[in-house]
Amino acid sequence: MHATLSRLETSDFPRLHRKYLETLQINVGYKCNQTCLHCHVNAGPTRTEAMSRATAVDVIAFVKDSGVRTLDITGGAPELNPHFRFLVSSARALGVHVIDRCNLTILEQPGQEGLAQFLADHEVEVVASLPCYLEDNVDAQRGKGVFETSIRCLQMLNRFGYGREAAGLALNLVYNPQGAVLPPAQAALEQDYRNHLQERYGIEFHRLYVLTNMPIQRFGSTLISKGQFEQYMHLLKSAYQPENLESVMCRSLLSVDWRGYVYDCDFNQMLDLPLQSEKRPRTHLTELAAAGLAGNPIVVKDHCYGCTAGQGSSCAGAL
Fold first, then answer.
1. pLDDT under 70 in the chain at which residues?
2. CA-to-CA distance for 118 and 78, rounded, in angstroms?
3. Smallest Cα–Cα separation from 310: which of 176, 185, 175, 178?
4. Using CB atoms within 10 A of its CB, is residue 179 exposed (0-12), middle (13-18) or buried (19+)?
5. What pLDDT does 2 receive?
6. E strands along 130-260, which residues?
7. Rounded CA gap, 2 and 115, in Å?
8. Which of 111, 203, 226, 292 could form a Cys-Cys staple with 197, CB 3.0–4.6 A?
9. Do the strands 262-263 and 70-74 form a parallel or antiparallel pair, or are they unpaired?
10. Residue 39: its pLDDT value, please?
11. Which residues sit opposite 17 in a β-bridge?
12. What pLDDT score was predicted for residue 178?
């Protein structure tokens, strides 16, 4: 694995400051049942990092005290964490909107029986990764057979009411480019997804989120191995749009790792760039007062151009 931080360290990215905190995004562990080429977490079946019950309790306490509106749960495959359902049910009991960043195939994994029912019962928004609507492209990026399983799991979610307007259960899909290119326009690609998935498989969904691949962890290492890292960074910088600075996710989102330490975003977490603090080199969630975050400087490096290039990119798609 090639490290990328040294190539991102010297940066001319504009300074940014935080706004009011709306979303707490927690990475509950790096274990995953898939190993995807575009993964910025370097997640996979052999990873052992996992949020403990004590840290999960700290998360819920922070959610209650801070008044955040959304708990965004990611991984790895977040459902593999043994405290995933505790986090969901506790947050929902507080009236907080919950997002599950789901890779779809986890729904058919042993031990995950009843997962779709649980998500529906708790009205969890499912944000599901499906990097293309064509089988060969998905399998090339995520592994052989992943597309076929993903389709079955999307059909399962539809049967529980996900993606159907009348049921009110949000099902949003995520697209990532296969290589060192910017994603296409979100609206047009969403219509292509909708047409193909409906006509071929009878699948319905609400929105498509188009994300730019970040030059860090597994994808960044792949770029270095192929001699494409500098070329990709030039692409991101040349497509920089300053108006995207107003809407980047780090201004209203806080990222928490499996140990409970906080970061401005999930990408900074993967680069081990903690939330900036004058008092300590690294801040735990239990040491943080959400009210004091507004105006706090955001740690920026060259990877931030990935969020501001072209149409922009965030956890909710194009900006």
1. 1, 36-39, 278
2. 14
3. 185
4. middle
5. 73
6. 171-175, 207-210, 253-256
7. 36
8. 203
9. unpaired
10. 66
11. 297
12. 80
- Encoding tokens for residue 186? 């979100």
| Confidence at residue 197, expressed as pLDDT on a 0 to 100 scale | 97
Residues whose CB is less than 8 angstroms from the CB of residue 313 and which lie 6 or more positions away in sequence, other chains included = 183, 210, 211, 212, 306, 307, 319
* 258 CB-near residues (< 8 Å, 6+ apart): 27, 28, 29, 30, 49, 50, 51, 55
Q: How many residues does the chain have?
A: 319
What is the DSSP track for 220-267? HHHHHHTT-HHHHHHHHHHTB-GGGGGT-GGGTEEEE-TTSBEESSHH
Question: Contact 37/218 with Cβ under 8 angstroms?
Answer: yes
- Cβ(71)–Cβ(22) under 8 Å? no
**Residue written as tokens 């691949």?**
213
Whole-structure pTM value: 0.94
Which residue shows structure tokens 């019950």?
A: 53
In this predicted structure, what is the pLDDT of residue 1? 57
Mention the CATH class of domain 5-308.
alpha beta
10 Å CB burial of residue 112 (0-12, 13-18, 19+) is middle
CA angle, 257 as apex, 113 and 290 as ends, to 5°? 115
Beta strands per DSSP E along the chain? 23-27, 70-74, 97-102, 125-129, 171-175, 207-210, 253-256, 262-263
Task: Scan for tokens 């042993």, then name that residue.
Answer: 110
For residue 259, with 0-12 CB atoms within 10 Å meaning exposed, 13-18 middle and 19 or more buried, which class applies?
middle
Q: Could you give the count of Cα atoms lying within 13 Å of 50 in the half-sphere of its Cβ?
A: 17
d(CA 224, CA 136): 25
Phi, psi of 203 (to 5 degrees): -90, 135
Query: Which two three-digit tokens encode residue 64?
Result: 């209650």
Written as six digits, the tokens of 257 are: 């790792």
Instruction: Enumerate the domain spans of the chain.
Output: 5-308
Residues with Cβ within 8 Å of 292's Cβ and at least 6 positions away in sequence, in order, are: none
Q: Which pLDDT score, from 0 to 100, does residue 141 have?
A: 76
